[in-house]
Amino acid sequence: AQKITQTQPGMFVQEKEAVTLDCTYDTSDQSYGLFWYKQPSSGEMIFLIYQGSYDEQNATEGRYSLNFQKARKSANLVISASQLGDSAMYFCAMRSQNYGGSQGNLIFGKGTKLSVKP
Amino acid sequence: DVKVTQSSRYLVKRTGEKVFLECVQDMDHENMFWYRQDPGLGLRLIYFSYDVKMKEKGDIPEGYSVSREKKERFSLILESASTNQTSMYLCASRGQGVVEKLFFGSGTQLSVL
């Protein structure tokens, strides 16, 4: 069965510092996709970054980068130069690209609450 | 700009009531999803639909049903609401591409008293 594990329920980081949010996954699929979403207190889920299992380069989107280590089955999110507005819940998610009956459903981890201190 | 709209941000219902949660997307997406979010449990899939009138059960379908009569609208129905269905409900939609991301609505916080 597929599973996403986020071991850090909560984290603190000083403004302007970098922070790494951990994510490990379990799948027997050869082809899959990994996503990170941000959920501020307003409740809306905001897409941050995507990594495909066959992508050779780590994904980057502005201040967000994904540290993808396929052999370790980890997909950690790195936020550089933290800002106060980065305070939010962060969810790691995975989709199997072997569609079958699941039609590409996303499986989510339990999330990490990040608090940025001024 | 892409949009997934959930009809209510907050909803309070009584035990035993029939509850309808509505979701509309304007992106012509084939796939639509209903998730439930609880503290410490993350998001769990209730039902999803990959086409009009088509639906499949997710991980926690018990106590819920869904309806998709039109492509843009996906409704979640609580046939007889119970207190353990108090939760945040998130609707999402996605296109058909392999790397297509989910677009989410802003959520409905449902309280069942």
Number of strands of chain A: 12
Strand share of the residues of chain B? over 45%
Cα-atom Rg of chain B, whole angstroms? 13 Å
The average pLDDT score of chain A comes to: 91
Q: Tell me the span between the first and last alpha carbons of chain A.
A: 41 Å
| Main sheet makeup of chain A | 6 strands, mixed
Q: Catalogue the unreliable spans of chain A.
A: none
Please write the string of helix (H) and strand (E) elements of chain B: EEEEEEEEEEE
Question: Considering DSSP H and I runs of 4 or more, what fraction of the residues of chain A is helical?
Answer: under 10%
Roughly how much helix do the residues of chain B carry, as a percent range?
Answer: under 10%
Question: Which radius of gyration of chain A do the C-alpha atoms yield?
Answer: 14 Å
Plain-language structure description:
The complex is a heterodimer of chains A (118) and B (113). By secondary structure, chain A is mostly beta strands. Chain A is 0% helix and 52% strand. Chain A has strands spanning 3-5, 10-14, 19-21, 24-26, 32-39, 46-52, 60-61, 64-69, 74-79, 88-96, 106-108, 112-117. The mean pLDDT of chain A is 91. With 113 residues, chain B is mainly β. Chain B is 0% helix and 57% strand. Chain B has no helices and eleven strands. In chain B, the strands form two sheets. In chain B, strands 2, 4, 5, 6, 9, 10 and 11 form a seven-stranded mixed beta sheet that branches. In chain B, strands 1-3-8-7 form a four-stranded antiparallel beta sheet, with no helix packed on it. The mean pLDDT of chain B is 92.
